[in-house]
């Protein structure tokens, strides 16, 4: 559906994206993930047609689109701050694109009502001024405005970052459901790895304008291709020095001694696992943070601080200062 | 990232049309006439003459006057900020009883200025002013001349130029995120600390912009020093005025004006930089509307109230006095002996008894309205192109458009008459001298810099994502401009139109050489009825005209800033709040885009001024 | 559609408003030319600096009675002269009167006025106008006098020479000096000060002694206050002496209850003569000449003198002038000022004074 082919973007002397190759499938929820300034928004704006690449070609639906102006690319976009037109009502905002196309009035009304129902905006809200709506409602207006033209592609630029945490989680699901219903190819930009993992079909992790890994959320999380991906997505224990030696000594002899080594928190068990090979290491509980469904323990062990996630309802809790045993499967250790 | 590439700029037909028209206009009406005049002035025999420079350097008086102009500008930059910020704070930030009435009092400078304003203060505090007389009765040792010189000029001009703060700083204040203030209070910050560390820093870009314009106003000061400066404190503007009227000394006038112009350019460059770096948006996700702050310390509260009302009286007195004086015999005014018998309707009878007294009003209203509309409409396109495409060409064009700020109005008018007195191919072989069009052209020209500056700032405060949004929805540049951007800058555009209209209404300097004999504008009519050796009622008649002008100007401001008294102000602010409360940071900055200030004394001074800065 | 509507609307607004102005402009020009060709038909544009105090209305009304349709355009002297020179390639005005000899010398020099011998040429002293070329003709004479209120300063205490004002410390700061050197009267004062000291070897044709006079004159005077009349300042006691064109005395005495005394120096006082001329290149030359014949005639000038306390140059008209005016003018000797030379130099003199001597 979408293909970035050797795309390069420069701003004056500065090279924002050196060479980007990506492919997004039809109907896919594709996320560009990375820290701020990594080039993900630039990639999105290039796709939208706001930025002209200095080299390379963008294909949309198999056709070269690099020279197409943004309005001819059949893309809808939701901006980080929604970019709702403050001088217009909600209905006028949604109908804006239709008005540009000189859609018949009755048809416009019908399409606006239809999309409003889909994003759960009431007719009362449609009559309001955009500034009278809450943040969540504004976001829905922005989505409706982008979708009413029935674009082939929906672009979302951090659409949840302006909302408070609880609303964010709630809207995450709604957005994903809407996308699934419509089956629209979606490119989503975020710096929030949790958002990326929960919503995406596939994720491209950006760093300094370069895609470090493209894959499903599971691949990104469990088989992080690079050190950057490993540390950026999800929490990690970094294993060093004496702890590594002990680990290798205790059974992880296949691990290379001189590489950076990481271990996910949930891969550290404090109770003997029912199955699977594991090595034991000893440590002392330094701290425990209770988080409802689970607790995070911090254990000092062989000169390293190791964090472990323990689900609620186990035989623990242990208290600070108590001795603990760590059960680690060496094959879960990621080395770069 | 603003797209500044050449290709992108020239790809849009709209931009190309705007640029072509603009280049034609600048070449025809700004560069060609003024270059002609300046070349014939500085190269009298085909080679450069340093006569003017030598004369200037050897004249102690000219250098002193020049120094005074700069000193005044620098002083005003400080004093106007102190008073202006105070005014904005007591009307918009602190809980002050009767703040709406205070606002009206402070706003009086919007509807009058120039000679009448200076005279008004002189009648109160001057040598024969009634405050001075009253004080002399109690303390006979006071110097009756206490209100003159540098001190008096600074006081009067400070009060007269706070208009910028009122119009533009006030609207910036309304955009401050109230949560930042709440947060600071929560951390135990005092009222003053919040003001000093939170509120004022947030206003900094606007304060800086207002300061620059205040500085320019000070540089061009004309009437206040003439009336109140005495022999010790005269500025350069009157000298420029005298010299520009004599063909032999025009090079000196131009040189002096160019020196002030260079200062203007330096400040302009600074202003451009601030605009580039300092566009301030609230960073809050959900901005909370500003609430008025009570002053907790009872003593401070009383002091601020007292200061606010004293200032109110100081502001309102001259206006009341002018209205009162318009009903007085002129001898009673000039000799300062007012009795009940002195009251008369004769001044009004004189004005309204003049044959066709109404016609100059109509002529000026039509000219001013047309000129202010044309200039705002044209600059909407130009400012948009400049703001969107930054490259050496647009930068050059932008600086060229500031020529009217750099040359005295009189020179510009003369250059126009002399250039268009023969068929000119640039305007299709037409002759403009002696037609009604030339004055309109001149009015449009002199209002360009002010209009451009403000509109550019207004466009700058519109978040770019709005344009992107419109574009991706298929809207073309014109459709976007009309439906998305113009509604957002409309409050600013309306305010500029009103300020331009008011300032052109009684223009004299531009019109004197350009007006069509059958369409005499108001400024000329006022002069005509106040000049003449036997006309002893000149001042009274000026007062009558001032009162009439105040009514028209007041009405214009009311149209823009609020129908139904202060309601409009509230409306404006409510708009901000709504936007702030809802539409997120981008939109919050937009609806009340009345940014960067006006050189308001320049724009609303009923007296003739040599340069638009005065 | 929308794009076009907006574009069309905005472009139309500008074009339309410009056309409105252009059309009424060209209509005026058209009607002017059309009727101007037919002698005295069209409205004659009369430029003057002497329209204040109801003079403009009076002239318009009287001209109408005489069958002349005129429109008075009143501007200050310097502004008016500048405007006529600037417009000389495409003149707007048809005839100009009221400016003094100095301004008219400039207009003649710039070829902005054209010679015409009026019907009343024999009734005026040619010397007061332009005896060589007859480019402009004299109407009214005025003396630029130093005045005081005899109620406050007895005539016996007043100085006999104007120069005493700055030479005698008793008058220090007690006389008003007008520093607005762009205007006509202050320029004449300056010319009068310098006239006795012309010296080809001196700076700008004036001896050092002459410049010393100027320096002292401004240094010891009290600068005029913008917007405050001289007599108001005398009434308040700010100053005792000041300069005024003689035609202004009558009205002020009536208004302020003063009895004006005039310093009459032995060398005389500067006189100015207001002139009239046809503006060069006017399409309504015939009408302009007709206006000049009428306005300068003994009858019109006599009526004008009676109405506005002027002193007409036309000898036949003098009979109708106010007796006190005639008495005053005839009591004041004329200072010998070379106006042709003055005109050539006044710009430079003003500039030097402005740069070096003004307070």
Question: What are the SSEs and their pairings?
Answer:
The complex is a heterotrimer of chains A (336), B (614) and C (359).
Chain A: E1 2-11, E2 14-24, E3 29-33, H1 40-48, E4 55-60, E5 63-64, E6 75-78, H2 90-100, H3 105-118, H4 123-127, H5 135-147, E7 153-157, H6 165-182, E8 185-190, H7 193-199, E9 202-207, E10 210-215, H8 217-222, H9 227-232, E11 236-239, H10 241-249, E12 261-264, E13 268-269, E14 279-290, E15 294-301, E16 304-311, E17 323-328, E18 334-335
Helix pairs in contact in A: 2-3, 2-5, 3-5
Chain B: H1 6-11, H2 13-42, H3 51-58, H4 60-93, H5 99-106, H6 114-125, H7 130-138, H8 150-160, H9 163-173, H10 178-186, H11 191-219, H12 223-228, H13 237-244, H14 250-277, H15 298-325, H16 330-335, H17 346-353, H18 358-388, H19 392-400, H20 403-406, H21 409-419, H22 437-460, H23 464-472, H24 477-505, H25 511-514, H26 522-530, H27 538-561, H28 567-582, H29 584-588, H30 600-603
Helix pairs in contact in B: 2-21, 3-14, 4-5, 4-8, 4-9, 4-11, 5-15, 6-15, 9-11, 10-11, 11-14, 13-14, 17-27, 18-22, 18-24, 18-26, 21-22, 22-24, 23-24, 24-27
Chain C: H1 2-37, E1 44-48, H2 55-65, E2 70-74, H3 77-86, E3 95-100, H4 101-109, E4 113-114, E5 137-149, H5 164-167, E6 176-177, H6 184-194, E7 198-203, H7 208-220, E8 222-223, H8 230-236, E9 241-245, H9 249-256, E10 260-262, E11 271-279, H10 285-295, H11 298-308, E12 311-312, H12 323-331, H13 339-357
Parallel strand pairs in C: 1-2, 1-3, 6-8
Antiparallel strand pairs in C: 3-11, 4-11, 5-9, 5-10, 5-11, 5-12
């Amino acid at each position: 559906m979408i293909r970035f082919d050797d795309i390069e973007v420069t701003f004056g002397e500065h090279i924002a994206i050196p060479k980007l190759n990506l492919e997004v499938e039809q109907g896919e929820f594709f996320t560009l993930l990375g820290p701020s300034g990594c080039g993900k928004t630039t990639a999105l704006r290039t796709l939208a047609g706001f930025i002209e690449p200095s080299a390379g070609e963008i294909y949309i639906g198999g056709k070269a689109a690099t020279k197409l102006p943004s309005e001819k690319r059949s893309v809808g976009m939701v901006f980080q701050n929604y970019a709702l037109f403050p001088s217009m009502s909600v209905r006028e905002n949604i109908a804006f694109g239709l008005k540009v196309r000189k859609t018949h009035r009755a048809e416009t009304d019908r399409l606006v009502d239809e999309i409003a129902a889909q994003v759960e905006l009431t007719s009362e809200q449609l009559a309001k001024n955009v500034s009278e709506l809450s943040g969540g409602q504004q976001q829905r207006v922005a989505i409706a405005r982008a979708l009413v033209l029935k674009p082939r592609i929906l672009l979302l630029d951090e659409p949840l970052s302006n909302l408070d945490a609880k609303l964010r989680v709630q809207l995450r699901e709604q957005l994903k459901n809407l996308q699934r219903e419509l089956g629209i190819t979606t490119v989503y930009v975020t710096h929030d790895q949790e958002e990326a993992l929960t919503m995406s079909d596939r994720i491209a992790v950006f760093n300094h304008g370069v895609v470090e890994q493209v894959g499903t959320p599971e691949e990104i999380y469990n088989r992080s291709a690079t050190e950057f991906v490993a540390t950026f997505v999800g929490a990690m224990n970094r294993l060093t020095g004496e702890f590594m030696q002990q680990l290798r000594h205790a059974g992880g002899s296949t691990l290379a001694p001189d590489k950076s080594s990481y271990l996910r928190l949930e891969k550290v068990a404090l109770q003997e696992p029912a199955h699977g090979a594991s090595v034991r290491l000893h440590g002392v509980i330094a701290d425990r943070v209770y988080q409802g469904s689970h607790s995070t323990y911090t254990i000092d062990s062989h000169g390293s601080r190791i964090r472990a996630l323990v689900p609620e309802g186990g035989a623990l809790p242990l208290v600070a200062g108590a001795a603990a045993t760590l059960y680690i499967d060496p094959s879960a250790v990621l080395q770069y | 990232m603003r797209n500044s590439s050449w290709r992108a700029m020239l790809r849009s037909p709209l931009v190309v049309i705007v640029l072509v028209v603009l280049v034609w206009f600048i070449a025809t009406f700004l560069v060609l006439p003024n270059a002609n005049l300046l070349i014939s002035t500085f190269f009298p025999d085909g080679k450069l003459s340093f006569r003017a420079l030598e004369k200037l350097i050897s004249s102690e008086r000219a250098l002193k006057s020049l120094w005074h102009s700069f000193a005044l500008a620098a002083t005003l930059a400080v004093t106007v900020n102190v008073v202006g910020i105070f005014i904005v704070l007591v009307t918009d930030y602190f809980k002050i009883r009767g703040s709406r009435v205070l606002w009206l009092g402070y706003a009086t400078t919007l509807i009058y200025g120039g000679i009448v304003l200076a005279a008004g203060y002189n009648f109160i505090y001057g040598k024969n002013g009634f405050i001075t007389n009253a004080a002399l009765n109690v303390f006979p040792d006071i110097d009756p001349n206490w209100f003159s010189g540098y001190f008096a000029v600074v006081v009067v001009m400070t009060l007269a130029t706070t208009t910028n703060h009122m119009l533009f700083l006030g609207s910036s204040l309304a955009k401050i995120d109230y949560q930042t203030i709440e947060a600071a209070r929560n951390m135990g910050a005092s009222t003053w600390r919040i003001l000093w560390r939170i509120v004022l820093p947030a206003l900094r870009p606007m304060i800086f912009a207002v300061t620059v314009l205040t500085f320019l106003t000070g540089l061009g000061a004309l009437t206040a020093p003439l009336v109140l400066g005495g022999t010790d404190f005269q500025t350069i503007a009157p000298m420029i005025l005298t010299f520009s009227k004599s063909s032999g000394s025009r090079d000196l006038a131009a040189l002096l004006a160019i020196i002030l112009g260079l200062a203007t350019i330096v400040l302009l460059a600074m202003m451009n930089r601030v605009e580039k770096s300092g566009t301030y948006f609230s960073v809050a996700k959900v901005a909370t509307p500003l609430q008025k702050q009570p002053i907790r310390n009872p003593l401070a509260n009383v002091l601020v109230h007292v200061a606010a009302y004293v200032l109110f009286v100081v502001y309102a007195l001259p206006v009341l006095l002018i209205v009162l004086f318009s009903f007085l015999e002129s001898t009673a005014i000039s000799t300062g002996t007012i009795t009940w018998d002195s009251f008369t309707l004769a001044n009004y009878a004189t004005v309204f008894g003049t044959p066709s007294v109404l016609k100059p009003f109509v002529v000026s209203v039509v000219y001013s309205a047309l000129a202010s509309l044309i200039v705002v409409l044209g600059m909407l396109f130009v400012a948009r192109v400049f703001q969107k495409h930054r490259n050496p060409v647009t930068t050059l064009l932008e600086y060229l458009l500031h020529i009217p700020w750099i040359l005295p109005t009189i020179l510009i008018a003369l250059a126009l008459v002399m250039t268009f007195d023969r068929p000119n191919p640039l305007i299709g072989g037409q002759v403009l001298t002696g037609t009604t069009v030339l004055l309109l052209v001149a009015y449009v020209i002199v209002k360009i810099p002010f209009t451009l500056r403000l509109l550019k700032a207004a466009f700058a405060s519109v978040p770019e994502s709005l344009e992107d949004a419109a574009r991706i929805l298929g809207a073309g540049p014109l459709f976007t401009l009309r439906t998305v951007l113009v509604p957002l800058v409309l409050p600013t555009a309306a305010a500029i139109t009103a300020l331009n209209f008011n300032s052109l209404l009684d223009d004299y300097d531009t019109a004197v050489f350009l007006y069509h004999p059958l369409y005499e504008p108001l400024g000329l009519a006022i002069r005509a009825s106040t000049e003449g050796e036997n006309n002893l009622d000149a001042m009274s008649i000026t007062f009558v005209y001032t009162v009439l002008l105040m009514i028209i100007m007041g009405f214009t401001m009311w149209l823009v800033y609020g129908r139904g008294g202060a309601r409009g102000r509230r409306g404006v602010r409510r708009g901000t709040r709504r936007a702030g409360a809802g539409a997120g940071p981008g939109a919050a900055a937009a609806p009340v885009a009345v940014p960067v200030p006006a050189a308001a004394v320049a724009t609303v001074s009923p007296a003739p001024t040599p340069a638009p800065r005065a | 559609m929308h794009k076009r509507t907006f574009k069309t609307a905005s472009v139309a607004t500008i074009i339309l408003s410009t056309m409105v102005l252009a059309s009424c402009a060209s209509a005026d020009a058209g009607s002017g030319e059309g009727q101007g060709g037919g002698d005295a038909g069209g409205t004659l544009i009369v430029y003057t600096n002497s329209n204040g105090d109801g003079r403009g209305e009076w002239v318009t009304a009287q001209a109408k009675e005489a069958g002349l349709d005129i429109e008075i355009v009143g501007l200050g002297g310097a502004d008016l002269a500048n405007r006529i020179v600037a417009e000389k390639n495409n003149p707007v005005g048809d005839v100009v009167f009221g400016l003094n000899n100095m301004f008219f010398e400039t207009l003649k020099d710039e070829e902005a006025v054209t010679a015409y011998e009026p019907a009343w040429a024999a009734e005026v002293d040619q010397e007061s106008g332009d005896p060589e070329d007859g480019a402009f003709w004299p109407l009214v004479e005025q003396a630029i006098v130093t005045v005081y209120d005899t109620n406050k300063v007895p005539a016996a205490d007043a100085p006999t020479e104007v120069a005493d004002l700055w030479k005698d410390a008793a008058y220090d700061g007690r006389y008003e000096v007008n520093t607005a050197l762009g205007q006509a009267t202050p320029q004449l004062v300056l010319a009068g000060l310098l006239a006795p000291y012309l010296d080809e070897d001196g700076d700008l044709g004036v001896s050092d002694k002459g410049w010393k006079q100027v320096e002292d004159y401004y240094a010891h005077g009290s600068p005029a206050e913008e917007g405050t009349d001289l007599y108001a300042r005398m009434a308040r006691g700010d100053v005792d002496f000041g300069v005024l064109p003689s035609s202004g005395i009558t009205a002020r005495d009536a208004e302020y209850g003063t009895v004006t005394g005039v310093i009459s120096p032995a060398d005389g006082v500067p006189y100015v003569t207001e002139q009239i001329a046809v503006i060069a290149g006017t399409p309504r030359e015939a009408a302009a000449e007709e206006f000049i014949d009428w306005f300068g005639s003994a009858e019109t000038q006599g009526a004008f003198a009676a109405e506005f306390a002027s002193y007409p140059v036309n000898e036949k008209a003098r009979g109708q002038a106010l007796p006190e005016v005639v008495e005053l003018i005839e009591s004041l000797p004329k200072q010998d000022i070379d106006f042709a030379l003055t005109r050539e130099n006044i710009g430079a003199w003003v500039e030097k004074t402005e740069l070096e001597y003004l307070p």
